[in-house]
Structure formats: structure tokens, C-alpha cells
Amino acid sequence: MDNDAPSSAFTNTVPTGNSNQPPDAPVDGAGTTTDGDVMTDSRGSEQNTGSDHDIDASVRPQRQEPVVSRRLGLSEVFGYSEDSDTNLLGLIYHVGGSVHYPHHSGRTVTLPQDRLGFVRREIAKMPPRPILDFLLQFFLTEVNWMTQLIHPPSFMLYYDSWWAKQSPKLLDEDIHVTHIDFTVLILRTCAFAAQFLPSPTYTVDSIRGMPLSQVREVCNTIGTSLHGVAETVNERGSLFRVQHLCFYAFNQACEGRLGSSWALLSSSIRVAHGLGYHRLAGSDSLLGDPLEREMKRRVFCNLYVWDGLLSRQLDRVSSFGDSFNMGNLPRMHLTPEVESESDAPEAFTERILQARLMAMWSCIKKSQGEDGTLYDPTQAQELHDWLQKDFVETLPPAFSLTNPDCKWDERLRHLPKQRQLIRATVGESICHLFRPLLRLGITDVRAMPIYKQVLLQSQATALTLAAFSILDASNKLHSLMGAMHTRLPAVVIYPFEAAVTLALLCIKDLVPREADVGVPGVQQNLKIRTNSVSTVTASSTEVLAATVQERLLQGQPVCYETCVAAVEETLNCLQKLSEISVLADGATESLSRLLSTIKNMSKNGVVDSINIASTDIAPSSKASLEQSQHVFASDSDMSLLTWVSASPGLHTISTADTTVDTLASEWPPFALSPLNDMWDPAVQDGLLSDWNRK
């Protein structure tokens, strides 16, 4: 069997451990089975490998085959995790005299004879190998950077082994469930890669005469059929199953079915939990031990990030809650382009940063109380300051939001894209934090003390700037990907939600007009071109971003007209993308209606707006927190507003209508540890336990 990687592009990182074994090979050593702690010697007689020197043989239960059958029944019928040392199943076998009991992973479970024919017929329908080879190579070089779910060298070793098993002389051999899981992983990965074709490097809409749409349909259809067989035979699954469920969820998101994507994501999380990834004790060792544990950490970290982002976006209940252990974050250096001793970021650094951000957001969400609670500006400001201090200000130099270190961009060519993803996610987090202020009515605002009204205006400005930051980041991400038609959800969702935020700010009249603040019109700076998406994205959107930046440097606010222009430009870009993206098509329709509402309101006058800037008791729209300190000093209710000054921790605000608890000590910083060092669990422990007192 040929286990060499097909090209040098996939061999610059050598997998550790036993990764050169085929997917269904045992890894426990010669003569050892994974179905029990009994092995045979050279004469065929059984040898007991359990540690029985400390248990009297007269009281130790006999290990007989019927016990194994009951063991399977307990795991399958009661749902006990086979990797637990503390649940009832683990206690039965530890107390019963054996610390090693079987893990019936897909590697050791073979398909029943009545399923073999169906499986082989489905595999025969797969696209020819040259098509699959091309799609996998494209995926590993152009798509894998988004998630790092696949380790290219080891994946290609298994891919070669998989094709070797398709030879006619091996077709009569038993097929293990893991072999089916890996087959589905190939199909799901290829279907996902096809979502990003054509591309700047491949401009044809077919591969060897097979249309890309047909490639996606065939791969997904066969993958669904084979997954159904594998799941029926073995519910527990494998690392390959978790991975292919993730890729199917990505496919659904690209097709504009985020609800289905959420369901698939939840399924993959359940499989990962069943395999013990939250304890890193999964026993289906398909890769060498160190590399396998690292890939499990990376998969589980990705699941945590996607669950956090989607649950926030869709307002769903997180599948993780507070159960993610930051000590389980990835820690190996697997980036061959740079030395592990250098200060270059690892390819997975962006995912770790996203996980840190989701951990902070979990605490923020818990602190905000139940849905329907009236928006509290002081609490939101504290949470924003905490996010700024303990996340934004601790970002590694290569991911800095203000002045990033770009010296590694040439060697790590996907680093600029990852940098924009971080920018967009941080901006989205700020938007989620401040966006509830849009629901406040005039009565709600007027009932607030003066300092809260000042905070509201400041936060409306911060919300506006965060939305512009998202638009700029998503625009640059799109440009870095070739500024072509793409189904990448981030290129659609981020700008759509940011544009909606700007539109709602205009509808609520929370941004000043140019005439009110005496700044030149933005329209004269815009030269809109409509001949291509790339031209629109590279010209007018960048001009808008430059205009916003210039006005901020001059101490001028972002105005109503600039926000409307940004909404219009986003609509133009989404209309281009809607030719192939279902998400963009739906976004275009909604954004068009909002834009029509804004234009109608401009003709008929603003109604039902907060209009904080024009209230008699609030400062002008130019007021900042620093400029407002004199207002607080003259108000008897403001004497304890220490949040205005910089401070290392959260503060106590005590007024007639609000009390916010203070943390007893400074929070531990979220400093990014080297990937080859143990992640400090005190960070997560302090984060969750301290916040529970809030």
C-alpha cells in the first residue's frame, strides 16, 4: 500500500505518531485488540493484561464474552459515555477489576454483509479521482485557512490509503465504519471547496467537463447516503465524522440555510461530546497520539467558536454554555512556513483569539440578564470597557486593530484574511453590545438621568463606528479573496448586519445631519462605479471608509448622509453577490426596504425617533465622555461616577436608580500563550467564577 503523500505541497509537516497507518488499522500494538484487554500469544492462548495483583481472584468478576455483550448494551441503551471514569459504566469496570475496557469506535466496527453492496455502489458513483484530487488540493491551499480543520500531510496519507482500498483485490474485504466516515469526509470537503469556485486562480465553472453545481450535488447526495449507513451501524462515530458534519454545516450555510447549518453544528457538537473531546480522552486513535489530540482540540475549538457566533447571531441557546475549558485549547505548532521558535503567529492563532472572544461574550451575555430587560447604558459601557481592555488591547501584534505588524504577511499569505475576520468579529461584538439601545423609546430615554443620556449618545456613536469597521473589514476580506462572486457567509452576513445597523441608526435619528454640524457633503467624495463588484468594492466603499477616518481625525462626527451612502454601497455589492448567493439575495431585499424607509422619512420628516442629540437635557452630538465630566461634577447624582476615569477593573456605580456590583479584584488578563505551552486554566476559571458573582 502506497502511503506517500501525492505531492511535496502536502509533506512539509511530518505527522507524529502512527499516522502512516491506514484508517482502519489498530494502533494499540501487534496482537492487541481494541475490543478488550485480552490478547493472544504466539500459541493462540489468551493472556490477561488487566492489573489483577491488587484484587483477590475469588471476588473479582470473571471477564467472559457475555459481559462484553452487556457492556455494549449499557453504552448503547443507556447512553453512557465509554470514555468516562466517573459515570456508572466507568465505575462498573474499574471496581470490577479492569481499568481498560473497550471503546467500540468505528475503526473496529465492520459493516453488516447486507450493507456492503449498497455502500460499494454509492462509492462507485463518486466523481472520478482527478476531480476529487483537484478539489482537495484547492481546499488545502485556498480554503483550509478559514478553519484549519484538516491537517494536510496526515489527511493526504489517509486519502492515498483510502484509494488503495478501492482496488479490485480488496473489494471483498470487510469495510469498517471509520472507512465510511472518511469517505464522507472526502465528499463533504470537496463539496465545500466547490463553493469557492470559480476563483481568481481557476475561472472555469466546471472540472474536467463536470459542472461545479453537479459536483456539489453528487458529493452531498452520496455523502448523506453513506453517513446514514455509518450512523445506523455505529452511533458513536469518530473524529472523521465530527469533521464531515462540520463541513456539511458549512455547505448549508453557503447555500443560505443557516437553520439547517445550526442543526448540523449541534449534531457535530453532540458527537464530539460523545467521543469525550471535552475531556480529551477520546480513544478512537486514527492519527498518532499527539497529533490526534491536537486535531481534536482544534476541532473542538472551532465548534466552540461557531456555536458562539451562530447562537449570538440567531439568538439560540448555546450548546456549550459555560462548559468549554480554555485549558483544552490547541497548543501545537503545525505551520510549516515559519519556525516554531519565531514570534510569527501560528495558522490557528486566529481561531484561538475567536475562542477567547466567545468566552468573554458568554460572560457578557450572562450579565445582561433576561430578554426584555431595559437597556442599561452604564452596564453596557462597563462591558465594552472590559472587552476593550482585556481583549482588544491584548491582541498579538499581527492582529492589532490599530497598527498591525504585517511583517509575516508575505510568508503567511492567509494571515491578512484572518486579521480582517478578527476585525469584523470584534466590531460585531460591539454592535451586539450596543444595538439594544435602538429599542429605546423617547419615554425611556427621558426617564434616564443626564449621565445615562450622555452615555447613550456616546454609545450610538460607538455603534456607528463599529458598523463602519465591519464594513471596512468585510470589504478588505472580499478584496483579499479576489473580489469575485463568493458564497462565503462572512462576506455577506457581516456587511449586511452592519448596513442594517447603520440604517436603523438613521431611522431612529441617532446620527447628526451634515447641515447641523457644518461639514462638507460626503457625496462629492464618492465616485461610484458599477461595471463590476471589484470596482465598486475597491472604490466607493474605500472612499467612504477614508471619509469616516478623516472626519474622526478632525474631531467631526459621522453624519447621517455618510451612513446612508454606506448602506447604498453595501446594497450595490450585495446585489452583485446575489447572482450566486442565496444569503445575499435575501439580504438585498431586506436592505432595499430599509433604504426606502429612510428615503421616505427624509421626505416626510422623522417620526418616532429617540433624537437624543436634540433633547434639552443632553449634550450635543459632539460630546464625548471626557468632555462631559463637568456635567457630572455639577450633578448631585453623579458623585460616584468613577467609571469616567481609566481603571484596571470594573467599578461600582451607585445612583438612585442603578447599582452595579464591583469585582473584588482585577481580572486576569487574556494574554495569548505560546501554542506549545499549557494554556493557563486560571484565566477561564477566574473569568467564569468571578462573573457568577455579578
UniProtKB/TrEMBL annotation:
GO term, biological process aspect, one: DNA-templated transcription
Keywords in alphabetical order: Nucleus
Polar residues biased stretches: 1-22
Stretches the record annotates as Disordered: 1-66
Domain of life: Eukaryota
Cellular component, GO, one term: nucleus
Subcellular locations according to the entry: Nucleus
Main location: nucleus
Pfam family, one: Fungal_trans
GO molecular function: DNA binding; zinc ion binding
Record SMART domains: Fungal_trans
Residue ranges annotated for the Xylanolytic transcriptional activator regulatory domain, each copy included: 261-336
Keyword hit for Nucleus: yes
Record protein name field: Trascription factor
